[in-house]
Amino acid sequence: MGHSLATNPSEAGGVRLDLALLRFAVAAVLALASATSVLAQEPPADPPQPPPEPTPAPPSQPESKPAPSKPESRRPGERGMGGPVCPPWICRDQEPDAAQSEATKDGAKPVTATEADKPHRFEKGELASVGAVGFVPWENRFGLVLGIEKIGPIFYGAISPEINYTREFGDRMLAMSFGLPVRLEVFDSRGGTRFDNGGRIRKADWDEASDYARILRYLSFGSKEDHFYLDVNQFKASSVAHGLLMKRYNPNLNLNTRRVAAELDAFNDYGGFELYANDVTGPNVLGALLFMKPLSFVDKKDFRMRSFSIGFTAIADIKAPIRNKLDLADTNDDGRRYNAIQVDQSNFQPVYAAGTVLGYGVDAEVKLIDTRVVDWKTYLDVSFLQTGLPADDPLHPKWDDIPTRAVRSSGWTWGHLLRLNVGHAPVHALRLRAEYRRYDPNYLPSYFDSMYEIQRIQYFGARGPVGSDLANRTKLQSVLGRDPGGDQVNGAYFEASWRAGRGFAAAIGVEVNDQSPDQNMFVHVEVPRLGRWQFMATYHRRTQDRFADLFTLNFGQTDLFLAKTRLGISNKFALVLEALTPYGIDPESVFHSTVQVNLNAEIGFPY
Amino acid sequence: MKTSLRSRLGVALLAAALSLGLLSSCAFVESAAQLLVGSPQVPRVTLDIAWPSVESLSGLSQQEMASIQGFPTTFKWGTLAHLQGALTMSGECSMVKDGETPPNQTKLSKLSVRATNCVGDPRCAGRCKAFEGVEVEIRFDVELLNEANAKKVREELSDTSSDAIVQIRLRFFTLDVYQAIDAIKENTNARYAALEMSLSGADGQEAIFMRDRDFDLVKPGKPQRFDVDSTSPVTHALKASVVAGKVTSATVVVRARVAQPDLYELMMTGGGLVLDAQPEIVINVLEVAKSKL
Hints:
Strand content of chain A: 35-45%
Largest sheet of chain A: 20 strands, antiparallel, barrel
Largest interface: A-B, 41 and 40 residues
Largest sheet of chain B: 6 strands, antiparallel
Structural class of chain A: mainly beta
Helix content of chain B: 25-40%
Order of helices and strands of chain B: HHEEHHHEEHEHEEEEHEHEEH
Distance between the termini of chain A: 35 Å
Oligomer: heterodimer
Number of strands of chain A: 27
Number of domains of chain B: 1
Helix content of chain A: under 10%
Number of helices of chain A: 7
Shape of chain B: elongated
Radius of gyration of chain B: 26 Å
Number of helices of chain B: 10
Number of domains of chain A: 1
């Protein structure tokens, strides 16, 4: 997540390697869609090999077991949150009968079944797919997914032919999945229409250029915190830098829309960048981290010198809702006007007057410990939020040409990130993050957070009614419009995640402060694979008034639950059950979370 | 082998069909299971109320008016300016006149008209606030649930949470604040500085559901629905009463404000309010069913 990512001596000469990897990755991405054989003629440069690994001691001699080898610090295809939701390290041997085929003639190795006896890499990056809204059920398969979906008041039968492809190139994984989702109308819950349009294809799915981007479900090369990482997908949550401006933002929490987000990272011993866009066809949330490691020029053999970096981060929502338009004309004839957001009936998206929220900041980080077992870094971050707040009378609001006044708020954070790798087959990876924060009352750390996609429009608290003052309840007004004159806010963040080999991952996080109703927590559990079974569940509780509220049993509007499980009945058939509380414009024309339980059938075959 | 594959496909399709029908669509059932309760269970409300005369509203007698120099002795064409003058003469800043319920409107009751003279009198500061002019307020109760229907509700909704009532709203077929000169009615909505309609609770709290331009939306042949804020305590109390199977009425308040410079433009005599509306209650049948489990 941070920007001091390459710190191992073996990576010291990484410039040449990175360029080679970059060239290879670009070539691979471009060519693989049509002809994988071309790639085989230009294999990537091998990464520098570490010194020979001592042979692991047998379990009966644990005291003599060697520490994990950081030079070979990553298993091929390993990825954290930045990867596909069912990352290659999870899915690669999911279908043994498919995966155990011979190497293809192009020389690229297909996904193999067993890697347990390979020396492992030091596990960095996110260890669990916290906040992902789905996973990729199988690798190297072609098939058909059948289910039902609801968009606004209309229900559709959903049919999606999908093809997944994952392949190892060099020391990295290239994974991709394509689908052609088609929705056929089943039922319109609004009075008058009902089943009249049954069987009709939903034209709105395919009437804009951006619609065609959905064919690409994901495409990724490398892993987060690799020297080069490209990820384009529709499922996952993303962070930039240490997450002080954007943490686990998922553009697909509003299930009435599907976006294909993109992330591109690259770095070497002297600097690097992370780029993010929440929609490849027309982004509104954009992010970038640029960093440099100036002391590498002095002595890059010393891990402290090499790891010291200074970064600049900027995240912006260039279409941030300033004020929601209300449904004063009662377009859906339900009588709700002042308590309903105006909804574009063509895409069931809210209509609002837009402005820009810009977050930017600088940070510095350095590693304190860098061994084969422990990796500890500390960082200091100063960030700002800036926007224009409406200056007119909120009781007589304007929606066009809204006069605004500039507002800027700031906060700083001192954080630590501790990563440990212990054991061997399985490797237990532990990741701990602790931060102290101090900030203005009208600043919010990780402003672009897990619920941003919804709360940018309706910043509802846990206790407040969802529908009150909808026009002005945007996140922009609710946060940056707070009285800046009060005492500075003291806050803390703690997060722990643990992954045991390929079998289990879990994470928990708590975010508290002493003033504002922005207490947050999450819990995540993941069974990447157990036989033919996969499971993943994330529970977020956001925007609570008090710390104690994080642990009550009431499930409210600011709770988010995402659970998905897949059970392979056979190689050719699987069932996917998901229980979600996604947000959508409900019949009351406000964002509301609803409980959705979906069961999809997958019919396909491995290849 | 082929048979086996066909068999598996059959199982798959069966499972998919089951998923469509059973598990996939909680929201489907929820939105499809909203039940609109309107006419005839909830009676339609029609009302044509003429403004009371200046005399009756101000309480001044002909003799008292005659004793005031320059003041008209009759208000055949009394305007709101005259009403303001009469209120000033009476020494009161606000007066209420109980109205007579139209004979065929048994579901209407407690009809009253209040006029308030907003000229900085501290006694009416809470009502007028910064406004200067005259405020006319019409208040009446509308029956939502009579005894017979309340009994049915008691039988059907016993043990049901008030959350089962998704919405309380009114569908207006006609809504005009008018004045009539020579029997020709003229809509005067645009001449009011402020118009609003609300439901009032027993404790005086109000839930405004129509404002200013909303009155213009109701046109002949274009009925319009207006929802009462579901988060308001007034709505909560109404929902609770309905679910409890009690005889329930809602107090409707129509408030019209005329600014000081426009008082001569609007007449009391021949003016009034015409309203034709259907109260509606939207019930979530699933919530009701849940309470029966």
